[in-house]
Design a protein that fits this description.
This protein has about 675 residues and is of the alpha/beta class. Among the domains are: about 180 residues, 3-Layer(aba) Sandwich (Rossmann fold); about 200 residues, no CATH class. It has 20 helices and 22 strands. The strands form 5 sheets. Strands 2-1-3-4-5-6 form a 6-stranded parallel sheet, with helices on both faces. A 6-stranded parallel sheet has the order 7-10-11-12-13-14. Strands 17-18-19-20-22 form a 5-stranded antiparallel sheet. The radius of gyration is 26 Å and the shape is globular.
Length: about 675
């Protein structure tokens, strides 16, 4: 077994491998693909190492994946220490993760479906008492170590513990300056309602954190909260930044003690309408040689042989990625690596062979949907045929496929989710992991949210979540759709014989008996009319009672005859999904179908609408930098300016008042035989 050495701080993070024969071989392998110069119009971060007075400590709080030491803190440490500051970093997320098995709770707070447990009231009711001793310990350490500046990484899923710890530090030690930065500062910056944050940093932090520390270190202080936003359009030159400094982290605490994070690039070449990362920062990549040098040094000096690249997509620049692969092959080091990727028709079988030979063992694809219509609506710039070709070629050479899916996109209906399910069953032997997510949410700083009328959304929320104008895509539909999606995964396992990332125990919701359990037919895509039941109650009721049919139809086509019972009760879905998709829905569905397609259905539904179910929701007035950039893309010609007006607002409120009189509560039973 390869020995793993502690990672120590680099005295020269930019130090390259000596120009010996091996390095020349690497360069010769890379240069046919990689560009010798950086992209144009990039900003170089100037780091001057001088004697500094301030001591800095950076923190990451839960909830975040405990797989690797945090790259963001490691990168900032390298920059801060390079400028002459004394600095340390603490990953309270991994420390809490290592302790949480001793917590008296009945759920896993780090499970992919439970991140909502860290939010709002749920955090304070269930998790704060367990987190508090750990945070208190490090608040005391801040005092003991005479720290002058504390910095926090801020995400949507760690706001509550971060806010509490920051407020306590400021209360006890008001002289300490507190910085906060991260994606949530881009979308929902804390602002004056959280005065314990002295500096709020929005955008790439390497340059701005040096600006903040320079002010603090030289005594240029203000009693007012200060918000720093990255210059519009600025892109930092990644090749000129020091390599991440992991010397302050104990890698043995993580799930992958022999691994680290790294990056090929920042930003994304796509403009998917549901994603704020596409315009969080503009795309630019590192040179292949710089990346190869970093990974080679980590491997040779410290025993690191697993790398997870955190880019929005590792294949944003296909030539540089191929140059990296060729360089790693020429170096003869033996690593494994993975990262997020877009399916791309230009990645042919030879391309996959190079990735596999360089150590790529898996790519995490943002597939999102198996419907060409939805893929166009999302602006994914890829087709179902291209997705299937990438999955097939990857499987041929051993590049496994982790796939991410969006269940319940606004323009997705029963036909479209049926096509997504069909893609999965057709390619189940090529898919290792299927991440179904938690149903589509509407972030405020996306192209979709800044022009949601284009996607058929109301300016009103129904039971605290978005709903389409035709009432057929709402939180109740999406809960059923997510449950049936995961039931399909459970019963059509991937090649590893697991229904990975099903977000909950589907056996709690269903029982099924197949006439031929080993049968799995590869079926063609089909158009099918899923408006099978007409309740004569409302479009809402019709959509809810018909939501199960795509699953029932596809299971028959793939597995043949079977008998299934599906039960949903409020306690189940409220515990699984919280307020996001939980509701007062009860359903009991029993369905039997023979091998020749004769079926019998017996369904019972009951839905009780909450009081005050309708509320006004409009993201068009968001003022964050990311929302402005989203408006530029969503509303060409707007220049990112807010298009809201009092006249439009009055119309929306009038519609809301009308909706407040709409109650979708219903009870319905359906018993019928049929033939497919």
């Amino acid at each position: 077994m390869k020995k793993i050495f502690p990672i120590i701080a680099e005295t020269s993070p930019k130090q390259e491998i000596p120009l010996d024969d091996k390095h020349l071989k690497i360069m010769e392998a890379i240069f046919p693909y990689a560009k010798p110069k950086s992209q144009k119009n990039l900003t170089t971060v100037t780091i001057n190492k001088v004697t500094r007075n301030s001591k800095v400590m950076l923190f990451l709080l839960p909830e975040w994946a405990p797989n690797f030491a945090p790259y963001n803190l490691a990168r900032l440490l390298a920059v801060i220490k390079g400028a002459g500051y004394q600095a340390d970093a603490v990953d309270l997320n991994v420390k809490a993760w290592n302790e949480h098995t001793e917590w008296d709770i009945d759920f896993d707070p780090w499970h992919g479906s439970k991140e909502w447990r860290w939010m709002g009231r749920s955090y304070h009711e269930h998790l704060h008492e367990h987190m508090r001793p750990l945070m208190e310990k490090y608040i005391q350490k801040i005092e003991d170590d005479k720290i002058d500046v504390v910095g926090f990484s801020y995400y949507y899923c760690n706001q509550e513990p971060t806010d509490w710890m920051a407020s306590e530090i400021k209360k006890r030690y008001p002289h300490i300056k507190i910085l906060v930065g991260g994606p949530q500062c881009h979308a929902f910056p804390p602002g004056e309602d959280k005065p314990y944050y002295d500096y709020i940093v929005s955008g790439e932090g390497e340059e701005m954190i040096l600006q903040v520390l320079e002010e603090i270190d030289t005594g240029i202080l203000s009693n007012k909260q200060k918000q720093l936003r990255q210059v519009e359009g600025q892109r930092l030159d990644l090749d000129t930044l020091p390599w991440a400094d992991y010397s302050h982290f104990d890698l043995s605490e993580y799930r992958f003690p022999n691994g680290v994070n790294a990056e090929f690039s920042r930003g994304c070449t796509a403009k998917c309408v549901f994603c704020s990362e596409t315009h969080f920062w503009k795309y630019r990549g590192r040179g292949a040689l710089n990346t190869v040098n970093e990974i080679t040094k980590l491997y040779l000096n410290y025993g690191v042989d697993y790398v997870w690249f955190l880019d929005s997509l590792v294949n944003g620049n296909l030539n540089e990625l191929r140059g990296f692969c060729k360089g790693i092959i020429a170096s003869e080091i033996k690593i494994k690596w993975t990262g997020y990727a877009r399916c791309n028709k230009k990645m042919d079988l030879d391309y996959f062979k190079d990735m596999a030979a360089s150590g790529c063992h898996m790519l995490s694809y943002g597939i999102e949907s198996g419907s060409n219509k939805v893929l166009v609506d999302m602006d994914k710039m890829v087709t179902v045929d291209e997705i299937e070709e990438n999955l097939y070629n990857g499987a041929l050479v051993g590049v496994e496929a982790h796939s991410n899916w969006i269940v319940g996109f606004p323009t997705e209906g029963p036909q479209e989710i049926y096509e997504s399910m069909t893609l999965i069953t057709r390619n189940n032997l090529y898919l290792n992991i299927i991440a179904g997510g938690h149903g589509f949410t509407e972030p405020p700083d996306t192209i979709l949210s800044q022009n949601n009328e284009k996607f058929g959304l109301l300016k009103s929320y129904f039971q605290s979540n978005w709903i389409t104008k035709d009432f057929k895509n709402n939180k109740v539909n999406r809960a059923i759709r997510l449950i049936t999606f995961n039931i399909l995964l459970y019963n059509t396992p991937t090649k590893k014989s697991v229904y990975n990332f099903a977000n909950f125990d589907t056996t709690k919701y269903h029982t099924v008996k197949f006439n031929n359990p080993d049968r799995h037919d590869k079926v063609e895509y089909e158009i099918f009319d899923f408006n099978i039941i007409d309740t004569n109650i409302s479009p809402f009721a019709n959509s809810v009672v018909n939501e199960v049919w795509p699953l029932l139809r596809l299971l028959y086509r793939v597995k043949g005859g079977y008998e299934i019972t599906i039960k949903i009760i409020p306690d189940y879905i409220n515990n699984e999904f919280g307020n996001r998709l939980g509701s007062n829905l009860t359903s009991d569905m029993h369905f039997v179908i023979t091998h020749d397609g004769a079926w019998s259905a017996n369904f019972d539904f009951k839905f009780k609408q909450d009081e005050n179910a309708w509320t006004y929701q409009d993201y068009s007035r968001e003022t964050s930098a990311s929302a402005k950039r989203a408006r530029i893309l969503a509303l060409p010609g707007s220049q990112g300016e807010i298009q809201w007006s009092w006249d439009k607002y009055k119309i929306d409120i009038e519609k809301l008042e009308q909706l407040k009189n709409v109650d979708f509560s219903f009870e319905y039973s359906y018993t019928k035989d049929g033939k497919w």
